[in-house]
Amino acid sequence: MGKKLTLLTAVFALVVAACGGGAEETTTTTAAPEPGETTTTAPAPGGGDAGAGGGGAEQAGGSLLDTVIARGTLNCGVNETLAGFGFKDETGQFVGFDVDLCRAVAAAVLGDADAVKFEPLTAAARFEAVNSGLVDLLSRNTTWTQSRDTDLGLDFGPTTYYDGQQLMAKKADGFTADSPLTDIAGAVVCTNAGTTTEKNITEASAALGLDITLQTFEDFNIVMENFKSGACDVVTTDGSGLVSRKATDPAGDEWVIFPSVPISKEPLGPAWKQNDSVWGDVVRWTVYAMIIAEEKGITSANVDQMVANPPDGEAARLLGASEDEIQTKMGLPADAFYQVIKQVGNYGEVFDRHLTPLGLNRGLNALWSDGGLLYAPPAR
Amino acid sequence: MRPPPHIRPMTQSRIDATQTRPPFWRNVTFLKWATQIGVLVGLVVLAWILISTALRNLEAQGLSLDWDFLTDPVGIRLGEGIFTQPASGLEAFATAIVNMLRVTASGIIAATILGVLVGISRLSSNWLLSRSATAFVETIRNIPLLIQIVFWFFLMTLFFPTLEVEASGPAPGWLIVSRKGVSIPWLFPTDVFWQWFVFIAGGAWAARRVYRRRIELLEETGRETHPGRWALATFVLISAIGWFAHPIAGALGWLFALVAAVIAAIPDFAFQLLFAAVSIWLGVRWIRRFLDSRRTPAGLARLTDDDYFRMGLAGALGLAGAAVFVAVPQITALITDVTHFVFAFLDQKFDFLRTGVPLRLGRPEVVVPGRFPQIGDTGMTMTPNFFGLWVGVTLYTAAFIAEIVRGGILAVPKGQTEAGMALGLKRSQVLRMIILPQAFRIILPPMGNQYLNLAKNTSLGIAIAYAELVQVGQTLFNQTGDTIQVFLIWMAFYLTVSLVLSSIVNWYNRRVKLVER
Question: Could you report the predicted ipTM of this complex, rounded to two decimals?
Fold first, then answer.
């Protein structure tokens, strides 16, 4: 009996050891092509390592642009729970400001705004999804920060929404829209866990020497319930999020958002795997085209007339209506941005469609000519 | 002297005999040793392959396993605990661990008391009581714990009274009940508390001795000797003397200071050698005990190959431990530093003839540090987050403990009850003196499992922002990106807590179980 057991153990150990060795081999060999499942023959664009050496070699082989064209669809990482920016509606469709950017890029590259496969991502999983090649583009209310731009192996496109962290309190407690941050001294401040908001409020209150009690919840709905009951005195998150909460809650009129100047800068924009400038140009100029279109008053409704009768040379180039258009040099069809405006709309249209209904006004996100920060380089 | 030539044929035949033995790969002894060593080598190689592959893949992804976040500033705040503004990851973890242990310890105590009461009630002959207990058990254990925790949390934050500066609580100054917490008066230890604690510990020890002595007396004389009352009186008397006499115990500070000084004075390499020697000694001791256990009245039993292998392994481990202590001085430095810190800390708590009252009464009050009223830290305050988690895990575990207790009592043969009743004992006496002591032995092992569950379930506190280990760890890795390290700390901590809890239960179980011969 004892001998049999020993032998059995030995056999088992050998099998395990063999599997262990085999498994090691498989992990190392499959690590690179795993994300390449989505591609066909092109060298895996999102190949396992983010190392500089390997990345450079891949770069020469092909851009994500070629991969997306070959595949015929754009894989785009979005939010599915944030009304206005990225949200899965009751019919299962993805809608929102960030979602429309995915559709715009698909329209530019593939000529079809619906040729997008949306990948709903959590805040924690989003960067890994880009680095592993699961998504070609990340458009998920993501703040552009130094560490994400450098340390995480991402490149960021133009900021599509200038946000900033603010706080919300009750008017009954003596708060106004001009209340300074120092008014929260001694308060129970609630926010959501796992985002930059937690760090921002900690640093901002520490800088002012304010003693607050900070509670961080996984679920922002719990934060709002406790705010309404008074268990939380103050809540804080991105200004856009507070506006949409205030707008949708029956008791919202009794609340006020402050301070007037946000306590942090949260520039939200698209991101993709770094060192792919061909792909980066496509995303960047899709955003710029939407901004320029708003500047020139080109909308989805009048874009056909504009093509037939361009107001100036820049519009003609951008819409592919003149011979000196630049889109084909980027590897896109000449009418790429015509398709963007036709199928998705200009920046203002997209903003009005998704964010104006929430009660957000243009603010910093107005055109530069209207006193905002949106400024696109010229198309020439 | 050369052997005479006529011996040769015999030698020849002996060689023939050995040649007929099976080849070495069919030799039992060889096979046993080969498999044992093979398994050992296989395990080591497997572990090495797994770890090195993981590290290589991490490196390929640009992730490194550095632990700087433990000492670097973290820039987070925690809802409650010893450091609400931790200066480093280590402080954040310390706060989280203390918070987790608070819920675990108080939850285990409360769940045990409640569970035993409910379990006994289910067997009560009082119809209303037994049905209520059944309803409690069936309701609580059939609803997911997470939902219950959020429910209790919301019960407090949504339905308790709002905290007002005027007229706070049902009994201002004594009891505050509000959405921001429940606060009660509390006795807080002062800086002479530890001097008094020496007397409390001594009193407990003396009470135990007195109790045993009175029991012996009872058994000798057969007269009632009131062992419980005697023990209690001893404890109260010594504690009361200590309340006034504690400055004398401050002399212990000299002892602690001396130990700390000695540890600081002895060079580290001496400790290294000492620990190495201890490691070898432990290996040798294990082998000797093993040999003792194999000794029979007829002498040492025949040792199998397996036994030799175990002894070899024990010796090798002892030597390996010694080698590690000698080769890695940091381990020794860590041990001596921690020991030194403990004694230096104790030294501060004791000062010969330092006078004062060991406990101070703190009464709850409402303070207004800014625009919002808050519960001050003068009383003992239970936050809604602690309340939700504590009530949640306590009730949930109590429901399971109740079933274990009921099962344990039912497992005691009915004849025991009948015999007790026949002796003229009251129902409560039968339960207390006959049934429960026997049921206890059956109950104890599954009870340990429930304690482990409770400890691990405290991690659900993350749902209601209770600053326990998982919540704080998640906050930390969201800010620093050191996900894997935090996971390792989580696993190590919960493993340690579970092992400690189960070894306590197992130790106790061995003590109380029937001695079988």
Answer: 0.73
